[in-house]
Amino acid sequence: MNELTKQFHNAEFDGWKPTKSYEETIENFWDSDLPFLEIDCDLDIEKIFKEVQKIKDEDWMETQTQTYQKEIHKKNGTDWFYTLHSSGWDEIRLKSYDFKNFKKIQKNSHDIPHQFDVVIKKNLLPKTIDELENKNYDYNFLKISRLKPSGWLHPHKDQISDFGNKLSYMWIPLNDCQKNLKIYPYGYMPCKLGCAYLLNNFDHIHSVLNKDQHDRYVILMKFNKSKIDMNVIKNAVKQQWYS
C-alpha cells in the first residue's frame, strides 16, 4: 500500500463529537456532519453472503488504480476530494446510474475522465435482489464490494453530487470486517453483522484496509431516505452520539 494509507491506519485519532445540538442534527439529519449511523438491518445476511460467495472471479470488476484531482482543490488543500488509489478492491454493480450520461457530466463539470466501463450485472444475484425487494429496500445505486486480504483504499472523500444527501449512502457488511473502515477523526467504524450503516462519505476522510486473512464483502447502496422510519433515526442518533 502507499505510505499515506499506511500512516492513516497506524495513526491514533482523537475521536469525533457532534458539533451541533441533538435537535439541530435531527432537523437536518440527512445533511448533518455525523460520520455514520448504525441501524438494524432486517435482511437475511447469511443467505445473501452464500450467494455472493458463489460469484466467479471473472464476474468481479477490479476498480482501477487512478487519481482524480482538480486544480482548485489542490490550491485549497482539499485534493483529498478527487484522490482515489486502491489495490485488491473489486466490485459488481447490480444497479447504477446512466453512466454514459454520468461520464459526460463528470467530464464537463469536474474535468475528471472516467477510465473504466461499468457493466451492470443485475441478473447475477437474483436471491439478493429478491431479498432487498421483499424487505422494501428502495435504491437507485447498488453494488457488492470485495476487498481482498491486504487490499486497501486510499484516504479520500467522495463527491456529494454522486449520491445526493450526505447520509443516504448505506454500507452493509456481509461478513466479519472489524477494524477495516477508518474515518478521520473518529477512528474505526463498527462492523456488526445484521446492522446497516448510513455512511457520511462526503464530510469525512475515510480509508479501508483489509487486515483479515479472508475477503471482506459489503453491500453499498444509495437508497431512498423516505423509506427510513425517522423514529428509528432519532433513537439511534441519541443513543450513539448524544448519550
Features:
27% helix, alpha+beta, 10 strands, Jelly Rolls
Task: Give the topology, please.
Blueprint lengths: L2 H8 L11 H6 L8 E5 L4 H9 L7 E2 L8 H5 L10 E10 L3 H12 L15 H9 L4 E18 L3 H4 L5 E5 L7 E3 L3 E2 L6 E5 L6 E4 L6 E8 L6 H12 L2
Antiparallel strand pairs: 1-8, 2-3, 3-4, 4-9, 4-10, 5-8, 5-10, 6-7, 6-9
Question: In a few lines, what is going on in this structure?
Answer:
The protein is α+β, with helices and mostly antiparallel strands and 243 residues long. It has eight helices and ten strands. The model is unreliable at 65-73 and 99-116 (pLDDT under 50).
What does this structure look like?
With 243 residues, this protein is of the alpha+beta class. The protein has a single domain, classed as Sandwich (Jelly Rolls). The chain contains eight helices and ten strands. Strands 1, 2, 3, 4, 5, 6, 7, 8, 9 and 10 form a ten-stranded antiparallel beta sheet that branches. Strand 6 and strand 7 form a beta hairpin. The chain is globular, with a radius of gyration of 18 Å. The relative contact order is 0.23.
Largest sheet: 10 strands, antiparallel
In CATH, what is the homologous superfamily? B-lactam Antibiotic, Isopenicillin N Synthase, Chain
Q: Please tell me the CATH architecture by its name.
A: Sandwich
Taking all Cα atoms into account, the compactness measure Rg is 18 Å
The amount of helix comes to: 25-40%
Question: Low-confidence parts lasting 5 or more residues at pLDDT below 50?
Answer: 65-73, 99-116
Structurally, the number of domains stands at 1
